[in-house]
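Entry 14: structure prediction run for Polysaccharide lyase family 1 protein. Input pasted below.
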Amino acid sequence: MLRLFLSTLACLVTLASGLAFPGAVGFGSVATGGSTPFVVTSLADSGTGTFRDAVSVSGRNITFAVSGYIVLSSPVSLSSSITINGQTAPGNGIGVMGREISASGKNNIIIRNFRIRQGNVDSDTGKSAFNMGKASNVILDHCSVEYGVWDSIDAVGTANVTVSNSIIAYPIGQQFGAHLETGPATWYRNLWVSGHNRQPLTKANTQYINNIVYNYQAAYTVANTGGLFSHDIIGNYFIAGPSTTSANDDYFQMNANQKVFASGNFLDSNKNGALDGSAANSVGSAVVLSSAWNSGSVGLATLSPQSAYTTVLASVGASPRDEVDSFVISVVQSLGTKGAIVTNQASTGVSNNGYGSL
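Run finished. Output tokens:
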């Protein structure tokens, strides 16, 4: 009963503030989520009281009376106007593994403190860990998205998105972080680890603020596209790792169709175990903007890249921090001496075939 009361109270505070939740930022902060309380009481894949049951009806504000992994035997499709409060789970928290979570074509989705770990136990190699294609008004905050097969996050044709304070790490299969088109989109204080490319791939007007990217082969990417987009890239730290073949691919395929305001970004390229990078604001052949394209971007960039490194590593991802996220953080803390781009989550050496235990 207390959990239901707190969930309802949080919803009322959210409605009063006009934000997805107090402290929400960026374009996805307009998401309204759901208001009808629903408690997940079972870790089963399907049936009464399960996560699949919870998200099958629009308008729900979902809390958890159970902790652990929900092992999915098939993809789960979210309804519109859903709030998923992973922080309400007892013990070590809540997560899903083995299949895609999809918000495709839906709107007003709020997901917080939730673990989404697909992995190669998913037999469908064309699916992503989280898919929100053609969705609108979506915010992921303090989520942990690992072991995506197609992409970790796929958001083609999606409008008004924020991904904040989240871990996007160790994609397998294509080894891609995130693919977003249409926008606008905000990527804020995220940790990107051991992805080949797309951290993110953004074909949209974009805010990219106080992110940390580690052990990349290509980091912030636009790709060869005819789209005309504007990008505010502020206060990020790109850190090379063992898999980084060219540290200067921190900005990748930035063509002349793009307009970029790049300020206060750093690159640490020497892989020497110390955080000792230097300014990195050269954005290829893109048109250089003298001021941010979005009036709110500079106000969001409250951290230097050095402070972003400390703050992000301390607070990013789902809470409480579990074995997988602890492993990810420890790799980044090696500052160039550890890390690998993998094709199988078990290659991480984390227990339970790479998934760890909740």
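Notes: Residues 2-17 form the longest helix (16 residues). Will compare against the previous run tomorrow.
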